[in-house]
């Protein structure tokens, strides 16, 4: 197979590429010639039997877009291609590297460093390794290709799921009648905030069912208000979200049978017994729902990141499609009053997800207040931020994340300008770190009283409590110096949530101060 593949490689040495110098006029195209698209994959790649056979070594429900990758590698003609992917996909890295080397003239390098998200695209390291092209898997193009220092190709790796099971699971558990949904699920939760693990959610084991009426039976009345869902996911499942929206906004039609699941903890044996009593064979809500796919630009519709999620309007619940809670928690923090449900496409379970908003707000507010107290120790006479750190006169540390593109130098410049122009100038020192840990930052004690990190807001939200000194995000820093509205205020009985106060999750949202700073080096 290797010999056959090698024979198909173009002999670039015998036929060197010609340099295009342009011309004053162009010859007219032949009549009847079909228009061509620059990035259209040639048929010789799509129909290559050896390539298609090699692709079969990868899981069929994972879209690694091998044809597209081969086309771009051949078009760009790099000598060395770097492959970067999250840990969950690295089991396929060697296979993909082998395919690229067999069907192109390029060599490959697998970048094994941890990749947490779209912000970790590491074009700098790829260049340092001598690569002239980077293929980044599993994340959307958060860093535009015109801003990377190397030719970059993003492969989202869309994953195929059982869409029918997803839609029917939602119809099985959630009424499409808004008042009924709120009464049977949400109001019950308000009265029973603590539900033991394994206990069913709601007063009844499964909900009232709509089914096709028998002869002589009146059609059930249409709901006066439809249940409103917001559908979100990671980039791998955004295509499935569109299918789900179509399924929920259209009346249910029984196109076959499938295995249903109740909300995690419900008893499915009773479901099966009762389902047989239904005239349709399925105890489902068959009406339509009001489903929307929100968007936080520049992300794709329905896509959320761990640090960026859209604000939702009048919504009864949000449904997150994906495994794990990291991304889901982002939209839960941004919309604390909207109930959240998670459908795991691997385990095929739908679960009610909760988040301790009060605890998070309190912990983060404590960090901000502690940072504010340290400002009082700084002299107002120093406006250059060049104070020598001592035990009695500690300064602030600004951490520029160096893991991929997590840290932005322009973001750091915006922060330093903010500290220098504060009512009380705050002395600081820049620190470069790839990954943060309590043990690492403890080495700077006691000369630094507050740390600001530009890597990821979730480091502060999720792990800030574990650090000895306040670890602030850019947003929390703006709150600490009085440049942004906080989520807590001083009340009669101590700190309390401000009216309308919320903790924003807009780190990469277009137009947010933090997104502007990454391009203009200022929050103004």
From TrEMBL:
GO molecular function (one): metal ion binding
Pathway where this protein functions: Protein modification; peptidyl-diphthamide biosynthesis
Substrates-to-products reaction catalysed: L-histidyl-[translation elongation factor 2] + S-adenosyl-L-methionine = 2-[(3S)-amino-3-carboxypropyl]-L-histidyl-[translation elongation factor 2] + S-methyl-5'-thioadenosine + H(+)
Cofactor: [4Fe-4S] cluster
Cofactor binding note: Binds 1 [4Fe-4S] cluster per subunit. The cluster is coordinated with 3 cysteines and an exchangeable S-adenosyl-L-methionine.
Enzyme class: transferase
GO biological process: protein histidyl modification to diphthamide
Top-rank taxon, per record: Eukaryota
EC number: 2.5.1.108
Keywords attached to this entry: 4Fe-4S, Iron, Iron-sulfur, Metal-binding, S-adenosyl-L-methionine, Transferase
Low complexity bias locations: 22-35
Key word DNA-binding present: no
Pfam families: Diphthamide_syn
Region (Disordered): 1-39
Keyword Repressor attributed: no
NCBIfam families reported for this sequence: diphth2_R
Similarity section: Belongs to the DPH1/DPH2 family. DPH1 subfamily.
Biological role: Catalyzes the first step of diphthamide biosynthesis, a post-translational modification of histidine which occurs in elongation factor 2. DPH1 and DPH2 transfer a 3-amino-3-carboxypropyl (ACP) group from S-adenosyl-L-methionine (SAM) to a histidine residue, the reaction is assisted by a reduction system comprising DPH3 and a NADH-dependent reductase, predominantly CBR1.
Protein name: 2-(3-amino-3-carboxypropyl)histidine synthase subunit 1
Species this chain originates from: Rhizopogon vinicolor AM-OR11-026
């Amino acid at each position: 197979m290797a010999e056959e593949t090698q024979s198909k490689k173009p002999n670039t040495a015998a036929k060197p590429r010609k340099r295009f110098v342009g011309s004053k006029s162009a010859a007219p195209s032949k009549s009847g010639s079909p228009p061509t698209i620059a990035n259209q994959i040639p048929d010789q790649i799509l129909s290559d039997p050896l390539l298609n056979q090699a692709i079969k070594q990868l899981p069929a429900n994972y879209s690694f877009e091998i044809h597209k990758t081969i086309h771009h590698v051949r078009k760009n003609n790099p000598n060395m291609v770097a492959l970067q992917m999250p840990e969950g996909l690295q089991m396929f890295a060697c296979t993909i590297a082998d395919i690229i080397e067999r069907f192109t003239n390029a060599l490959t390098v697998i970048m094994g460093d941890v990749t947490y998200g779209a912000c970790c695209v590491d074009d700098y390291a790829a260049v340092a390794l001598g690569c002239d092209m980077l293929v980044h898997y599993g994340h959307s193009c958060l860093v535009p290709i015109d801003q990377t220092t190397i030719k970059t190709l993003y492969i989202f790796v869309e994953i195929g799921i059982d869409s029918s099971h997803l839609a029917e699971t939602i119809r099985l558990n959630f009424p499409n009648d808004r008042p009924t949904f709120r009464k049977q699920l949400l109001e019950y939760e308000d009265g029973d905030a603590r539900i033991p693990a394994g206990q069913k959610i709601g007063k009844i084991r499964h909900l009232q069912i709509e089914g096709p009426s028998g002869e002589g039976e009146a059609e059930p009345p249409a709901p006066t208000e439809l249940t409103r869902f917001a559908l979100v996911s990671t980039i791998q499942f955004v295509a499935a979200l569109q299918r789900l929206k179509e399924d929920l906004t259209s009346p249910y039609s029984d196109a076959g049978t499938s295995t249903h699941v109740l909300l995690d903890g419900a008893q499915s044996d009773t479901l099966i017994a009762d389902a047989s009593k239904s005239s349709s064979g399925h105890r489902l809500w068959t009406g339509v729902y009001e489903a929307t796919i929100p968007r936080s630009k520049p992300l794709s519709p329905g896509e959320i990141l761990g640090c960026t999620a859209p604000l939702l309007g009048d919504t009864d619940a949000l449904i997150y499609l994906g495994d794990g809670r990291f991304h889901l928690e982002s939209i839960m923090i941004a919309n604390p009053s909207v109930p959240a449900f998670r459908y795991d496409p691997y385990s095929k379970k739908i679960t009610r997800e909760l988040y301790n908003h009060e605890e998070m707000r309190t912990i983060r507010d404590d960090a901000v207040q502690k940072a504010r107290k340290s400002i009082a120790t700084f002299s107002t006479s120093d406006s250059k931020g060049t104070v020598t750190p001592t035990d009695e006169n500690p300064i602030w540390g600004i951490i520029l994340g160096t893991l991929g593109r997590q840290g932005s130098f322009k973001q750091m410049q915006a922060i330093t300008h903010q500290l220098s122009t504060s009512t009380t100038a705050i002395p600081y020192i820049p620190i470069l770190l790839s990954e943060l840990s309590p043990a690492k930052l403890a080495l700077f004690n006691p000369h630094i009283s507050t740390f600001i990190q530009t890597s990821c807001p979730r480091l502060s939200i999720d792990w800030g409590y574990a650090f000895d000194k306040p670890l602030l995000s850019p947003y929390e820093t703006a709150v600490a110096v009085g440049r942004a509205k906080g989520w807590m205020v001083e009340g009669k009985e101590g700190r309390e949530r401000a009216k309308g106060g919320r903790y924003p999750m807009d780190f990469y949202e277009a137009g947010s101060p933090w997104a502007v700073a990454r391009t203009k080096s200022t929050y103004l």
